[in-house]
Amino acid sequence: MTGINEPFTAVQIQLRPRMWLLSLTWLIALALLLMGLATVILGAVAFFKFRGEATPAYGDEAAHFAYGSIGTEPNSGLPYWMWKTLPSLFPEQFEGRNDYSAFGFLYAQDAAGRQRDLPIGISRRQVSGVEVVWFNCGTCHVGTWRETQDAPPHIVPGMPSNNLNLYRFVRFILDIAADERLAPDTLIPAMERQGAHFDWIDRLAWRYAVLPRVREGLIEHRARLLPLLASQPPWGPGRVDTFNPYKLLLELPPGSRVPDAEAVGTADFPAIFNQRPRKTMSLHWDGNNDSLDERNLSAAIGAGVTPKTVDHEAIERNAAWLMDLKPPPSPYRPDPSAAARGKTIYMQVCAGCHGWQGADRFVFQGDKIGKVEPIDDVRTDPNRLNSYTQQFRDWQLSAMFAGTRYQFKHFVKTNGYANVPLDGLWLRAPYLHNGSAPTLADLLLPPDQRPKRFLRGSDVLDPVRGGFQAPPCPPANTPSVFCFDTSARGNSAEGHAYGTDLPKDEKQDLLAYLLTF
Amino acid sequence: MENDPIFSPLKFRNLTVKNRVFRSNISGRFDNEDGSLTQTRINWESKFAAGGVGAIISSYVPVLMEGRIIAGYATVHRDDFIPLWAKLGEAVHSFDAKFIMQLSHSGRQMDLPGVHNQARKAPSATSKTEPLHGFLCQAMSKAEIDHTIAAFARGAWRAREAGLDGVELHSANGYLFSQFLSSGINDRTDEYGGSLENRARFLLNVIEAIRNAVGRDFHLQVKLSAVDHNNVVPWEKRGNTLEDTVAIAKWAEAAGADAIHVSQGSLFPHPLNPPGDLSLETLTTTYDAMISSGVHGMRNYLLFRYPLLRPTFHWLWFRMKKGKPIEGVNLEEARVIRKAVNIPVLCTGGFQTASFIRNAINSGALDGVSIARSLVANNDLVQQWAAGADRPEKPCTYCNRCLVSAMKNPMGCYDVSRYPSREAMIDAVMSVYRVHGQFVIPSKEVMSR
Questions:
Q1: Contact in structure between B381 and B367 (CB atoms under 8 Å)
Q2: Peptide bond before B274: cis, by omega within 30 degrees of 0?
Q3: How many CB atoms lie within 10 A of CB B129?
Q4: Which of A225, A291, A293, B347 has the highest local Cβ count within 10 Å?
Q5: Is residue B99 domain-resident?
Q6: Where are the domains of chain A?
Q7: Which of A202, A246, A241, A264 is closest to A72 using CA atoms?
Q8: How confident is the model at residue B269 (pLDDT cuts 50, 70, 90)?
């Protein structure tokens, strides 16, 4: 007996072997067609939606310095909407404010007198259609000063970023890498509450591409940097370890540790006024490079660019502007006769290394100005010097921008710290490369009499001692102040005892002259 | 009318027809599944006889059950059907018309195989699957060919026994004879394939066998496709030329044929036969009956059904019609054949205008015309001509809805635009079921409402 579903016509029998094949073929073809169609449509939409590569252009040089991108965003940045949302997700870290001022980022006002959306030193760039923000030159080189605690701050491009607690900010970003508040289910609605307008394609893209990529990057940075940062004394406001994070992110293989001997390289952000006269000088605190261009590019790498993402044109525009950027004149008005006497002393004791302040301009002259002073002579804290090693220098020259006209050629390993010109001295406090002497008066004290523990981070001028107010640390830690402890590694206030043995009167005269810088 | 060539008798060797108008072979599924004919068939043929045609060429009548095109058409494969056919002959004769039985065999061109044939491949000259519908087939052996030749002879004998007036061999339009004759289809390597003589052997052997069975004095005509145009499916070969068909016609005459009936095309339907339009929309409601008949049925149905796919079929079908007339589409081919033979030549192909037919006859292109669709539309077309009309008031529009409805619905004119209403159209179609006593020419009845 034949089955009820057995074919019986000639056509059925002929078609029977093909039926399965046909069905399967059609199903596969249909599935492939639908998948292909969906891929093409989604691909086209994604192509048009996520292909943008652009960054705002600023006609004004100062605005470009403060807000223009140098190419840090693709490799190091955070999506704009994530940046906007973090204050609401981590209010305890932002001291309840809906901006980044808790970390010392500076906000200027727009033409209408409103606080600008992004702080100075944060630029934006569209990366694959997603707005991303991160550091630029202004992050580390724009600071403020005030005459009194209640006076409004004056923002000064080119001076060290005396407010910015970069250590705290970086630790915060690394700490939240694995925080559940960055999961898409929390973050995407939070971003929408901040004003992001996402359609369903955006949501899919953010959930399955943008956020995983960002988080993966954060976790990778955390794995590389956190052990180093955790081992270092907190840097405090206005300071950075320039080369050690750079080594971990670019040079050393994953899982490496920076050898202990070089593991603390924390130093103050430098002022970057008047670059033209510095052209032939040894640059960086340890004077390891005499090329402005290489120094600039290296600093940009510290900010987050890579050889692939760097925007040379934007950096060169900043460099050109900085060539002749003058510091604002000192607001101090010391006794002119004391200053005149002090100048005589300065010219004997200091000018050979640091140049001098003329009536209307700083004079970049001196036998040893811009040259490296051996560590055995200057005797200041050696940690910053030791953090830059011959091995790292050799790697820089062989690997960075290799094969391009930007390839590094000028880095050298030195054995001391460079004698820096003192233009804009009144804005550079605290003093010495590591900021261990809070005021000029303290710098003129013998090293063992300099303050051991003092508050850093104030931008209120100290018209008597020269610098920013730096009272002794309170007994217990107080929120939003940073106690600088000279006993911590890298923070030593030893060395640079020049002028410390002058008689008191002469010291007063010298201080009066220094206040005019 | 006395001098009107349309109404002058046409004398064949063994048959005289009162005028030059033949009802061409057309029918519907009016008969029984076993092949016995019904009163409906008698009604059908009588309608046209009553309308004034000189002779009825029956629709396709298989000589064997395995040669049916569509189950439900009467056959002549059994002696006990002779009385039934005799009844039909009597009915047609009562209207002073002659009845010529078209002896046929589908070969592979089997539209609706029916219960007898669905479980086997159709016998054919070839084993190549039919390209348009995908009808399966098996090349006939020599013994099967001999059996089939004998069946044709026996079928002709039964027609004569039934008192009919003659037979026609349907050796056109893609059926079994075409499958042997056509160089585009016949791929045999024996004495029935290869050269034109070999390909014509089956037809000529059948004529010889019929003559042996019925004698020299029984009318026998042969329907031929003047040109095959076998490449409707573009990758197929073109098939026989007019020159080939002229030779076949002469050989048929020599073998004992009394007339040649000229058509066109090596499959049915064909873009040039019947000429005119093709309603794909109607096919979507009827072709489903044929989906399971061939291995390409579903493909075709999809081509008909989905407007996005229709242009593909439209291009295939209508590319051959360009520049061709509908009325008299085969006229010039008939003229060539008529010049080559010494027996009368009939021609089919869209005839509907009296003056056109008169000119055709007077010009020597043909001796008579065979008409199907125009007579389905106006059963009394000949009477209208006799009354002086050149064309009927509501002529056939050549829409071919009659053709594409045949698989599912009773044969009739389905061009609703020719009727006062859809109900009137259905009335006209259903008139075929009225018994003889009630028989009225439906076009007169319906159109006069």
A1: no
A2: yes
A3: 18
A4: B347
A5: yes
A6: 1-49
A7: A246
A8: very high
Using DSSP's 3-state secondary structure scheme, residue A427 falls into helix
pLDDT tens per residue across span B361-376: 999 999 999 999 999 9
CA distance A147 to A331: 9
* Residue % of chain A over a pLDDT of 70: 98
Distance from CA of B124 to the nearest CA of A (A): 15
Task: Give contacts of A7 with chain B, Cβ < 8 Å.
Answer: none
What is the average per-residue pLDDT within A430-452? 96
- DSSP 8-class letter at A239: E
Q: State if pTM tops 0.90.
A: no
Nearest CA in chain B to A18: B295
Do residues A144 and A154 touch, judged by C-beta distance below 8 A?
yes
* pLDDT value for B449: 46
Q: What is the DSSP letter of B231?
A: T
Residue B138: closest CA among chain A residues belongs to which residue?
A: A10
Please check whether residue A11 is in contact with residue B294, taking contact to mean a CB–CB distance below 8 angstroms. Answer: yes
Read off the pLDDT of each residue in B133-160 and give the average, rounded to a whole number.
98
The position carrying tokens 């390839």 is A407
Contacts of residue A6, defined as CB under 8 A and 6 or more positions apart, other chains included, come to: none
**What pLDDT score was predicted for residue B445?**
52
A111–B contact, CB cutoff 8 A:
no
Residues A325 and A321: their CA atoms lie apart, in Å, by 7
CA distances from A63 to A317, A323, B214 (A): 12, 16, 113
Asked if B292 and A8 come within 8 Å (Cβ–Cβ), the reply is no
Determine, for residues B121 and A9 on separate chains, whether the beta-carbon distance falls below 8 Å.
no
User: Cβ contacts (< 8 Å) between B299 and chain A: which residues?
Assistant: none
Query: By the CB < 8 Å criterion, does A12 face chain B?
Result: yes
Interface contact flag, B113 A15, Cβ < 8 Å: no
Three-class DSSP category at B123: strand
Distance in Å, alpha carbon of A78 to nearest chain B alpha carbon? 50
Structure ipTM over 0.90, yes or no: no
Chain B residues whose beta carbon lies within 8 Å of the beta carbon of residue A9: 113, 118-119, 292
Task: Judge whether A9 is closer than 8 Å to chain B, CB to CB.
Answer: yes
Does a structural domain hold residue B163?
yes
CATH of the domain at B145: 3.20.20.70
| CA–CA gap between residue A291 and residue A332 (Å, rounded) | 34
Beta carbon pairs, A and B, within 8 Å:
23
Segment B283-299, tens digit of pLDDT? 999 999 999 999 999 99
Residue-wise pLDDT tens digits, A353-384: 999 999 889 999 999 999 999 999 999 999 99
Q: Which of A2, A6, A9, A11 to mutate to test the interface with B (most CBs of B within 10 A)?
A: A11
Residue A23 touches partner B, C-beta closer than 8 Å: no
Distance CA A423, CA B222 (A): 120
Number of domain units in chain B: 1
Find the helix packing angle between A184-193 and A211-231, rounded to 10°. Answer: 100
Is A10–B293 a contact, with Cβ atoms under 8 angstroms apart?
A: no
Phi, psi of B62 (to 5 degrees): -70, 145
Structure confidence at residue B444 (pLDDT): 53
Chain Cα centroid distance, residue A57: 21
Q: Which of B12, B84, B85 minimizes the C-alpha distance to B55?
A: B12
Could you tell me the residue range of the domain that residue B242 belongs to?
Answer: 5-127+141-278+324-447
DSSP-based three-state secondary structure for A109: strand
